[in-house]
Amino acid sequence: MTSPDISSILPIVLTLILSLYTRNVVIGLFTGVITAVVMLIGFNPFTVLSELVKTHLVGTITDSYNAGVIVLMVFIGGFVALMEKSGGGPAFAANIMKWINSRARAQMAAWFGGIFIFYSDLGTPLIVGPVFRPLFDKLKISRQKLAFIIDSTASPVAILVPFIGWGIYIMGLMQKEFDAAGQNITAWGAFIQTIPFQFYAILAIAIVPLLVWRKADFGAMALAEKACMAIPDSSTQQAPNQKSNKTLDEEAPLIQPFTHANARASFVFIPLAVMAIVLAMMLVPMGFPFKSVPGSAFRAALSSAYFLAAVSLMGLMAWYKVRSLNGSVTMYLNGMSNMMQVAIILILAWTLSSLGKELGTAQYIAEQAQRGFPYWLLPAVAFIFSGIISFATGSSWGTFAIMLPLVIPTSFAIDAPLFVSMGAVLSGGLFGDHCSPISETTILSATGSNCNQFEHFRTQYPYALLNGAVALLSFVVAGFYQANSLVLASLIVQLFLVISMCKRAAKSI
Predict the structure, then answer these.
(1) Are the C-beta atoms of residues 445 and 146 closer than 8 Å to each other?
(2) Which residues have CB under 8 Å from 284's CB, separation 6+?
(3) Neighbours of 323 (CB within 10 A)
(4) DSSP 298-330
(5) Closest CA to 110 of 137, 87, 85
(6) What is the dihedral of CA 241, 246, 247, 250, to 10 degrees?
(7) Are 18 and 5 in contact (CB under 8 A)?
(8) Nearest to 279 by CA among 163, 119, 166, 189
(9) What pLDDT, in 10s, does the model give residues 232-270?
(10) What is the 3 state secondary structure string of 112-143?
(11) Which residue of 3, 358, 384, 509 is most buried, as measured by CB atoms within 10 A?
């Protein structure tokens, strides 16, 4: 077999270019898949489309592992839709409101709320934001700060949890590459070992309590907070750089979470408890978490847990007369259908990866990397490229679909630290997402807080850059020294930088 040449990377290059140009990862991935099929069988529109559907797309979908992941994602989508529209989140928040009587407690409560509602990164802003918005207004905490807190807990928390949509999606991409490389590595074990190297996510979560402890901010956020504090109690007049609440409300419809007089905080606790019990009953007898569990058994257990958790929530809503059983089932099915775009991205990413193996894409990249690319530099480079793609497209999930199939085989080829490199892709995708004014989480965090979208982007940007710089430095060091304790060092660096920046901001304001 001849060694692949530079033409083997054409599909992935076109995928990157079109994803960045159109800001739509689906268009980029589909173009890459079509290009790869043309390169394999020649250009004939009917033959190409027929071969694409018959051999590649159908083959990808009918693969037992892939089908199991898609089914699990569908179950997760239905459960998340029910949780978001059950009224349990606002009921839980209402229960803790009586303990909030200061600016620091309000910010920490919103932070804890964002962490607790971990099951949906996109649902968190629309649950936590509207619930805490009146309290933040009352205590003169800017809506930019609320949007920042929400954005710092939504995706960063979700990306660290292996058994929700983010984790299942990422593990699906990982496992495909492990199998193709003939590596006896489980996606679950790999994901867990990657968590300590997801530097950006951990730094993003940690910076909120750090700023609350310092009772200070820096950059555009410091100005926004000062302007908000200057608002007279009995007036809607705002200080410079701070739009009035009335103006904000006129710019966009005021988003309110679903609430119901009969909703209970138990709507959140009980389904999650059911999920934990089902998982324990099905996986512990197999030795989990101390022994490796077959992927098929793990996915079956998770699917069962999500389904039974959804059934318990439907029963609770019917019992307390929040929603009828018919209405709950309809909402559950709608939530399942909402996962269609995620499934499309996964299928196209898997298909492009399989086609790339036939063309020798990963082999060519690995051969080039072996000619002098330093193994220790791969994590830092993966972080930078993932950040650029995510920033330009506004899609961290799309970034993972493009970058993981490139970074994992390259890591094997040059003996780069695998878990650090994968953590770099995940961190870079999240970093670019946080810096991007067009990302879904940026838009939803601003919407949930009823804050101007550009104001949220402008005030969060300095914090994202600080965390990104610390993460990049951490990945350079981790290229040489792969220790879980390295994350503690990155948090210490973040601490000193935040203290320094806050002191400078205090002197300049």
Answers:
(1) no
(2) none
(3) 24
(4) HHHHHHHHHHHHHHHHHHHHHHTTSS-HHHHHH
(5) 137
(6) 150
(7) no
(8) 163
(9) 764 433 433 444 444 444 444 555 667 778 888 888 889
(10) HHHHHCCCCCCHHHHHHHHHHHHHHHHCCCCH
(11) 384
Contact present, 475 and 199 (Cβ < 8 Å): yes
Question: In this predicted model, what pLDDT tens digit does every residue of 78-119 receive, in sequence order?
Answer: 888 888 788 887 787 677 666 777 899 999 988 988 888 776
Q: Which amino acid is at 308?
A: L
Amino acid type, 178: F
60 CA to centre of own chain? 24
User: What's the rounded Cα separation, in Å, for the pair 398 and 391?
Assistant: 11
Residue with tokens 């419809």: 253
pTM of the model: 0.80
Angle at CA of residue 111, ends 195 and 141, nearest 5°: 145
Q: Tell me the three state secondary structure of residue 291.
A: coil
| Range 488-491, long-range pairs (CB < 8 A, 24+ positions) | 490/199, 490/202, 490/203, 491/202, 491/203, 491/206
Residue carrying the six token digits 């790869």: 36
Query: How many Cα atoms are found within 13 Å in the side-chain-facing hemisphere of 495?
Result: 8
Asked if 499 and 214 count as a contact pair (C-beta separation under 8 A), the reply is yes
Determine contact, residues 173/405, Cβ cutoff 8 Å.
Answer: yes
Amino acid type, 166: W
Query: Which tokens in the block code for residue 495?
Result: 């601490």
Q: How confident is the model at residue 170 (pLDDT cuts 50, 70, 90)?
A: very high
